[in-house]
Amino acid sequence: MDYTYDADVFRRTFESNFTWIGGFMRNVHRFGQRPALIDPISDTCWTYSELNAEVNRLANALASHGVSRGNCVLYQLYNVPQFVFFYIAPQKLCAVNSPINCNLSSGETARLLDRDRPSVYVYDYDVRKMAWEALTIASHRPSCVIAVKAGGGSAELPEGHVLYEDFIREHPSTEPSVPVPPGMYDESTRFCTSGTTGTPKGVPVTQANEVLSAHDCIMHFPLSPYDVTMNLTPWFHRGGLHSGGPTPTLYCGGCVVIMRMFSAGHCFSYVEKYGVTFLIGVPSALSKLADRQEKHPADLSGLRGIVTMGSPLEKEACMRYQRVLTPNIFNGYGTTETFWNSFLRPADLPRFSGSAGRSCTDDEIRVVRVYEDRKAEPEDVVPQDGVTEGEIIISAWAKSAMCYFRNPEQTEEKYYKGWFYTKDIGVWDEGSYITVRGRKDDMIICMGENIYPAQLEEVISGCPGVADCMVTGVPDASRGEAVAAYVIPSDPSLTVKDVHRFCVETPDLSQYKCPRYYRLTDTLPYNATGKKQHVLLKQQALADLSSGALLRP
């Protein structure tokens, strides 16, 4: 094709420079002495120059242990300074950083070690027992295992493990040498879905996806180099890292304040002390903030906005947050695979509260018809009448690599003609506002964590004395939703305490996924083809919760 300009020069320049790590380095050069990262626990502030020096020491240490292009650095950390270091350092080496959930069980962590086969595994010292057990279960042996201990200090570690401070000691703060710098198509980060089975799906994110995910937040908040953000959710989720977390904030030249564990009291203290301008959290966190503010008012006049995600904002709750916290409430909807893809702005609220908003600037969302034996074509949409239900599909080419890591079957199942098929059921109206009516794969959201019934049912079915089981979610004031397990015993002597003890003790189930309620039963709802009908179970669970038929262990 003939162009009116030198397309080859443009292509080479664009493809080699349109990277997140390139944007971070531009900020190191132009904002070197401005704050980039603040850790309230140690009351430490890193300027952009100081943060880059720390990252370089880590990158050079990783390189000395053989980490290079395409290698995976898997880290299981809470929100701590080292999380940011391990997010950035592998990118300088063209390696892949892969954050995973700190709340996983040892068996779940072991499966991820075997799937990703990381060169380096990093764990938070607070989850050391789980991490050590995971390493004994996994077949893969990382060449280097690093422990991160909040506050530093000595620690007793197994042979071959090393503390972060000792790992980087003696390594220079100069830029690491790499044969070929990262380009826009290189995988930079690998997220994990919450997992419909024992092993979560890997979601690769390219350097270009990182940049455009950052751009999305910068546009929609909007963010500037003068903003200070604090995410109340874990960074190991895409919504934590990419929604007002280190990815967009450090790309635009702003400052990130670290919150290791959510606390409403600490949150307001940090807002006042560090001049936080944007808070990011799930709706259940906003409820706790509003409770705190009503009892112990803090100065929130510096807040430019609070951004929430993970579930819809109900109208009354939204009006309360706007009155008590800030009039600038935002709500995003999306997936791990595509980041967020629709957005409710303050001007949309409270009128459109309960909906998922309209598509983001670079995205498109449609609601298509549902067929039992095939996907609907992207053009086969339902009427925009706010009534007719269909499947929500998303076009988010800018923020998605449009595949799963080494999982062609699931890639074919969820991606089609450039669209991501969410399996969420919803409606849309004449203004293209989307309302989600049902959760994908009957997902349960507990304390901001996604829980899928299939995995729990598989694990509970392994309990001695259990013939069959189903799980669903029920409303819970502090958790959002709690897990309720319905069990058909094969042994008449089986008790609720027996099943609960099994759930707590098995290495294949995270503690936050353990059921809070149980019921022993004779039957479970199946359809004519033998498929579990979780919709009917959820209806039954609501009635059983009200009547007291659901038992606490």
Describe the structure.
With 553 residues, this protein is α/β, with parallel strands linked by helices. The protein has 17 helices and 26 strands. The strands form six sheets. A nine-stranded mixed β-sheet has the order 2-1-11-10-12-13-14-15-16. It has a five-stranded parallel β-sheet with strand order 4-3-5-6-7. Strand 3, helix 4 and strand 4 form a beta-alpha-beta unit. 49% of the residues are buried. The model has no long low-confidence stretch (mean pLDDT 94).
Structural shape: globular
Q: What is the CATH third-level topology name of one domain?
A: Rossmann fold
Which secondary-structure class do the elements indicate? alpha/beta
Uncertain stretches: none
Termini separation comes to: 70 Å
Count of DSSP strands: 26
Would you identify the CATH architecture of one domain?
Answer: 3-Layer(aba) Sandwich
Largest sheet: 9 strands, mixed
Number of helices: 17
Strand order of the largest sheet: 2-1-11-10-12-13-14-15-16
Question: What percent of residues are in strands?
Answer: 15-25%
CATH class identity of one domain: Alpha Beta
Task: Report helical residue fraction.
Answer: 25-40%
What is the subunit organization of this protein? single chain
The radius of gyration is 24 Å
* Whole-number mean pLDDT: 94
